[in-house]
């Protein structure tokens, strides 16, 4: 399957996939994304559950067994992990191009 069709990932999807490298329910993911992004990305509940539905349909995440019957728990799938790796590689390439042009982190223009 050509996984590059899922690229580029949205910022929200990127953070959700990273958050779900550990199993978690929707509210956990919302909190984890905010933590991982240093508060720069906040996902509303409606957005979160819409994104989860799409990622399940795309087979990037799946529900996993949980003792908590009140909440559905999700985790990244092998396919989701492969897509995430492709995205990280794509982002690294973008950063490398900027560095070869003399741009460094923290530079002022």
Explained architecture:
By secondary structure, the chain is mostly helical. It is globular, with a radius of gyration of 16 Å. The protein has one domain: Arc Repressor Mutant, subunit A, CATH 1.10.10. The protein is built from 4 helices and 2 strands; from the N terminus they run H-H-H-E-E-H. The protein has a two-stranded antiparallel sheet.
Along the chain, the helix and strand elements come as HHHEEH
Strand order of the largest sheet: 1-2
Q: How much of the sequence is in beta strands?
A: 5-15%
Helix segment tally: 4
CATH class category name: Mainly Alpha
Give me a quick take on this structure.
This protein has helices at residues 11-19, 26-36, 45-57, 78-100; strands at 61-64, 73-76. The protein is mostly helical and 109 residues long. It has a two-stranded antiparallel sheet.
Keywords:
globular; single chain; 7% strand; 2 strands; 4 helices; 109 residues; mainly alpha; Arc Repressor Mutant, subunit A; two-stranded antiparallel sheet
Give the arrangement of secondary structure elements.
Elements: H1 11-19, H2 26-36, H3 45-57, E1 61-64, E2 73-76, H4 78-100
Antiparallel strand pairs: 1-2
Helix pairs in contact: 1-2, 2-3
């Amino acid at each position: 399957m050509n996984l590059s069709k899922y690229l580029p990932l949205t910022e929200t999807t990127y953070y959700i996939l990273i958050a779900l490298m550990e199993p978690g329910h929707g509210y956990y993911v919302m909190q984890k994304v905010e933590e991982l992004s240093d508060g720069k990305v906040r996902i509303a509940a409606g957005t979160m559950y819409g994104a989860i539905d799409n990622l399940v349909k795309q087979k990037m995440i799946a529900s996993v067994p949980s003792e908590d019957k009140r909440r559905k728990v999700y985790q990244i799938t092998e396919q989701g992990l492969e897509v995430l790796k492709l995205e990280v590689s794509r982002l690294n390439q973008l950063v490398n191009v900027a560095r070869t042009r003399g741009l460094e982190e923290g530079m002022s223009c």
